[in-house]
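Practice problem 4.
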């Protein structure tokens, strides 16, 4: 059973989707710690209410990104973390963090990477005029939204879509995709070969 850490900054719907899959016994893992950089993150409140180990780490208490990430790594190690799930964690992470957990940090991004990296990916997709959008779960490396892709899910973009419509359609897929990747990781089914992730089914 693998020890999973979830890092989040906001509402935490992806965290909840992972937790549900853990609680349902679909994932051979347990949530060891939930960490947020925002004291009032809904996801952090939910974690506390669920009786999970939930920690707020205030960026203001640290002098720079590396000092902050050193503390995050300390907490992760203290909790025996084997997999780190970034789930709406709105901070760039430094090489201190990436190095400590190489190929053990995953992230979900609401676009078909490598298109539309960064903020407001769904808005970027709408404005660009793509006919298909989606979400990606990938390993995290030093560059933002750049690491090896594990799984993707595709949704159509409809003519009359608003940004909210597209966000909602993608989010439904995110909530299936992220737990599935966590399940595969915890079952030791993922192998990284350069930029490619081979899934041993
Ligand atoms: C999701 O759209 C995710 O793809 C992106 O940030 C959002 C987080 O939403 N990285 P939530 O906090 O999981 O509800």
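Answer key:
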């Amino acid at each position: 059973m693998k020890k999973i850490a979830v890092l989040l900054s906001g509402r935490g719907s992806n965290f909840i989707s992972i937790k549900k899959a853990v609680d349902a016994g679909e994932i051979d893992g347990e949530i060891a710690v939930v960490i947020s950089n925002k004291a009032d993150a809904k996801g952090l409140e939910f974690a506390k209410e669920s009786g999970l180990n939930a920690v707020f780490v205030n960026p203001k208490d640290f002098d720079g990104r590396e000092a902050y990430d050193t503390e995050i790594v300390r907490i992760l190690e203290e909790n025996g973390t084997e997999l780190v799930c970034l789930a709406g964690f709105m901070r760039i992470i430094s090489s201190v963090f990436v190095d400590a957990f190489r190929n053990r940090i995953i992230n979900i991004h609401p676009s078909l990477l490598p298109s539309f990296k960064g903020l407001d990916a769904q808005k970027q997709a709408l404005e660009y005029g793509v006919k298909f959008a989606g979400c990606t779960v990938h390993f995290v490396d030093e560059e933002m939204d750049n690491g090896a892709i594990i799984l993707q899910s595709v949704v159509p973009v409809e003519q009359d879509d608003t940004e909210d419509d597209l966000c909602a359609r993608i989010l439904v897929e995110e909530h299936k995709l992220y737990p599935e990747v966590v399940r595969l990781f915890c079952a030791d089914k993922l192998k990284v070969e350069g930029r490619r992730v081979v899934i041993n089914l």
